Every structure is written in C-alpha cells, then in structure tokens.
Amino acid sequence: MKAETVFADTNLFLRYLTDDVPAQADLAEALLHRAAKGEVALVTTSLVIAEIVWTLESYYHLPKRDVQAKVLAILNTAGLKVADADLVMQAIGGYAEKNVDFIDAYNAAWMLKNDICPSSPPPTSPNLSAR
C-alpha cells in the first residue's frame, strides 16, 4: 500500500526547529518520525524553504550559518521530498558562503542550471554571479 502524501508547510518546520510552541513541535516531530518510517510521504517546495530562511533570519535573528545548517537538515530529512532540492542546496550554499539573500542565490542557481544570463548584476549582491 502506498503511503499517504502530505504537504509539509513552513509552520511544520519552524515549530520543529525552534520548539517555540512545544505542543506543535511535538506534533511536527511525530509527523517527521512517521515520514522517516515510511508511514507517510512528505513533500514541500522551494518557496517553503525560502520562507523558512526568511523567518529564521528576520524573526529569530539566526546567523546565516545556523540557518544554512537547519535548511541542510531539512533537505536530508528521511521521507521528505523537496521540489528542486538541487537548486535549494546550491542556493543555501551561496546564501551562507557569499553572504547574499537566499532568493538571489536561488535565482542564480536557477540561471546556471538553465544556462541563462542575468539582465543585470543584482544591486544588493555584489558577491553573486550567475556565471
């Protein structure tokens, strides 16, 4: 029998990662354990990852390296499929290593993958290059 597929939204990950609402963190952890055991298949998108990055950085004031570590943990979660995980992986590396916004890093990774040139250099991201 095929496992039920469930969309994992931003709140699921934030509650689990921050434990700021313990009851919800426990529910999130239980769902993640079910996914790891193959009882349920979790899926999410790069937009959810972008929202997680933004929230951890702006609301929780985590440094980029800590945000990167948490996103890498998400990407390596058993039973979870992240759409465009390869781009997210590249983007989170550029985000932390080149000190650029995650969205700029994601777009640069997308341009590289698709062999597309940017219309102009990102004005706020002198360290980022799609080429």
Q: How would you summarize the topology of this molecule?
A:
Layout: E1 4-7, H1 10-18, H2 22-36, E2 40-44, H3 46-58, H4 64-75, E3 80-82, H5 85-97, H6 102-113
Helix pairs in contact: 1-2, 1-3, 3-4, 4-5, 5-6
Strand order of the largest sheet: 1-2-3
Strand content: 5-15%
Order of helices and strands: EHHEHHEHH
List low-pLDDT spans: none
Helical content class: 55-70%
What's the shape?
globular
- Count of extended strands: 3
Radius of gyration: 16 Å
**Sheet with most strands:** 3 strands, parallel
Number of helices: 6
Mean pLDDT: 92
- End-to-end distance: 46 Å
Oligomerization: single chain
Q: Structural class of the secondary structure composition? A: mainly alpha
The structural domain count equals 1
